[in-house]
Amino acid sequence: MIVVVGSRHDAVSSMLVERWPHAALCSAEDLVRPGWVWHHARPGQRTWIIDARPVRDEDVTGIFIRRSSVYAEEMLTTHPADRAFLASECHAFLTFILATTSARVVNPVSDGAFGEEALRPERWTTAASETGIAVRPVRVTSQARRRRGLRTTEVEVVGGEVFGELPARVLDRVRSMAERLRMVWGTLLFDARHRLINVTAMRPPSDAAAVSLGRFLTVGHT
After folding, report:
1. What class does CATH assign to 2-111?
2. Neighbouring residues of 144: CB distance < 8 A, sequence distance ≥ 6
3. Is 40 exposed, middle or buried (0-12, 13-18, 19+ CB in 10 A)?
4. Which pTM was predicted?
């Protein structure tokens, strides 16, 4: 089974669950349902609650992360005064699950963060510099300036595959950068001079990337 960790209100999560065979959504509502079992030292005694159903961790082949936090506003069945505390506890629990599951995780927990929070600018700018990718500088000014159109190119990374229309040498560096970041999935935005503008894991995958992600997540445990 592929588990999409996201929200029922996220159209991309719903699209991927429908697209990938044997995929299901694990929402914030599932995190507060009874039935979770998670023995850190006993991988055979771990049970998720996914779409309100118990699923053994050993039956989960891959996990695709579509959130970076659990929010108090999602705790609708809890008293309003307790929602912030419960959301914080669920966030910590989900971090532990994602860090210790035996399934493949896209993208793995890094420095206690997951999802978009794991791809902080200080991480990807450092990795870009180490792999020879130029980063487009950010200029801050108080003076009014005429906006100019910015021509950009998107590159997608899925495991060892790279999708995008850039020179081969740049795509090779993108692959090396993704390895340094342990980034299994992400979208990189470049300007016309092949300078990196942004890195994100929250863009909807293209058709080619979604197919590749589906294959990657059904391979099995790491």
Report:
1. alpha beta
2. none
3. exposed
4. 0.90
Rounded CA gap, 129 and 185, in Å? 20
- Provide the angle, in degrees to the nearest 10, between the axes of the packed helices 207-218 and 11-19: 60
Query: Which distant-in-sequence residues (6+ apart) come within 8 Å of 205 by Cβ?
Result: 16, 156, 158, 185, 213
Burial class (CB in 10 A: 0-12, 13-18, 19+), 195: middle
Distance of alpha carbon 218 from the chain centroid:
16
Q: Which two tokens stand for residue 125?
A: 């700018």
**Where in the sequence of the chain do the CATH 3.40.50 domains occur?**
2-111
pLDDT digits (tens, 9 = 90+) for 178-220: 999 999 999 999 999 999 999 999 999 999 999 999 999 998 6
Residues 115, 7: contact at Cβ < 8 Å?
Answer: no
